[in-house]
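Q: Hi! First time doing this. I have a protein sequence and I read that you can turn it into a structure. Is that right? Here it is:
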Amino acid sequence: MWYYIIKVLTSSIIIVLISEISKRNNFWASVTASIPLVSLLAFIWLYIDTKDVKKISELSTGIFWLVIPSLTFFLVFPVLLKRNINFYVSMIISIVVMVIFYFVLVFILKKFGIKI
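A: Yes, that's right. Below is the predicted 3D structure, encoded as structure tokens:
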């Protein structure tokens, strides 16, 4: 039980830390958020839980491919905000576009025999 509490607290602290840094310095918040902290934590927790490096390797490969469509969010979202579209509407549209790109990429990868 304590192990799960530590996992949740560690992950939560990182998210709050990035949010607080962004209030003071956008550059450092961007740098901190761009580091694949969630992935790194997932690798650490998975290794501690299973010691299965094959699973970690597969997760890392899947993350590599799926980062590509996730980048569409970071392209669409600021464009919509700069056009004075409501924050929540911009976020929803950006998420929808990103999800569409996930499906497109998975479809393309399957055509090349790459399974995630």
